[in-house]
Design brief:
Blueprint lengths: L17 H12 L1 H4 L2 E8 L12 E8 L3 E6 L4 E6 L7 H4 L16 E2 L5 E3 L13 H7 L20 E11 L2 E10 L19 E6 L5 E6 L9 E8 L30
Antiparallel strand pairs: 1-2, 1-11, 2-3, 3-4, 5-6, 7-8, 8-9, 9-10, 10-11
C-alpha cells in the first residue's frame, strides 16, 4: 500500500515504539469504561450541521452513559433532548433485536492492560438513536482506530490504522495522545458516512488521556477546514439528575379556583 506523503507534524520526536503504539490503541478502545458522564463544548462545522433542528454553531452537551443526552446552543436554549432510561423493558423489547441483549460497558468484563486500559473489548450496548449528529458516536468512542482487539501477530499490516507519529501533549489544558494516522487494510468505520481517518489521507487524532474521547480530528492531506472537529471536555463523571434529560410534565389546572370569563363588546 502506497501511503500519501506528508511533512512531519512533530519534528524532533522519535518514531513511536511498539509500547507507545499499543498504549494508543488500548486508549482508543477504552472510552466507554473510563467515564459515566461527560459535559462537552464543541463547534459544529457546516458540513456536519443540522440547521433545521438548531444543531449548528457552538453547542454545549451533557451525556450520561449511553442512555441520556441534552444539548444547548450558545444562548443556552435547549435544542435536543433524549433519554432511554424510561424506555419499555418488557418482553417485546428483549425479543426485538440482538442489541437489546447487549450490556452497558459497566456490566461487562473486558481484558485490561497493566495501565487499566482495554486490551480486548467485548460487544457492548451502542448509542442507538440517542445522538443527534453522526460524528458524535465515533468521536465519543473511537475504537475503530484500533479494532476491538489486538491485531494478529501472524498477519502483516493487520492493524486498522498505521501510526506514523505519536506524542503526548496537551490540548485545551488536558493531557492527550496525539497521533498522525492513515488507514490500514482492516480499517472498518463504525459509521460509513463518517470515518475518523479518511482513506488516502494523513489525519491528526488526539485522544484525551483520562476519558479516551477523541477531542481533535484534523485531516492533514486532502482535507478542508470543514473536515476538522474538536470537542472540549468541560467535566466528566459528574452526576446529572433525570430531569435534565426529560421534558417537564404538563401542569394541571386547579379546578377549585374560579375560571375567569372575558366578555368582549363586538
Amino acid at each position: 500500500m502506497i501511503e500519501p506523503s506528508a511533512p512531519p507534524l512533530f519534528p524532533g520526536h522519535p518514531a513511536p515504539g511498539s509500547v507507545e503504539r499499543r498504549r494508543f490503541r488500548a486508549l482508543a478502545r477504552s472510552a466507554p469504561w473510563l467515564t459515566n458522564s461527560l459535559r462537552l463544548k464543541f463547534h459544529v462545522p457546516e458540513l456536519f450541521a443540522a440547521p433545521d433542528s438548531g444543531l449548528i454553531g457552538e453547542l454545549d452537551m451533557i451525556i450520561r452513559q449511553r442512555e441520556a443526552i441534552a444539548v444547548r446552543d450558545e444562548t443556552d436554549r435547549l435544542v435536543y433532548q433524549k433519554e432511554f432510561f424510561t424506555a419499555d423493558r418488557g418482553r417485546d423489547y428483549v425479543a426485538a433485536s440482538l442489541s437489546s441483549w447487549q450490556l452497558p460497558a459497566s456490566l461487562t468484563s473486558p481484558v485490561y492492560t497493566d495501565e487499566h486500559l482495554i486490551l480486548r473489548r467485548p460487544e457492548i450496548a451502542g448509542f442507538g438513536e440517542l445522538l443527534p449528529l453522526d460524528f458524535l458516536a465515533t468521536m465519543l468512542d473511537p475504537y475503530e482506530l484500533a479494532g476491538t482487539e489486538p491485531a494478529s501477530l501472524e498477519l502483516a499490516f493487520d492493524h486498522p490504522t498505521f501510526i506514523h507519529e505519536l506524542v503526548e501533549t496537551t490540548f485545551n489544558g488536558r493531557k492527550v495522545l496525539a497521533a498522525v494516522l492513515t488507514q490500514g487494510y482492516s480499517y472498518k468505520a463504525f459509521n460509513p458516512e463518517f470515518q475518523l481517518v479518511p482513506p488516502g489521507s494523513h489525519t491528526l487524532i488526539m485522544l484525551d488521556r483520562v476519558t479516551g474521547v477523541c477531542v481533535k480530528r484534523q485531516v492533514l492531506t486532502n482535507g478542508t477546514a470543514d473536515d476538522d472537529l474538536e470537542l472540549q471536555i468541560i467535566a466528566h463523571n459528574e452526576y446529572y439528575i433525570d430531569s435534565l434529560f426529560t421534558s417537564p410534565a404538563p401542569t394541571l389546572t386547579d379546578v377549585r379556583a374560579p375560571i375567569p370569563w372575558e366578555l368582549r363588546n363586538d
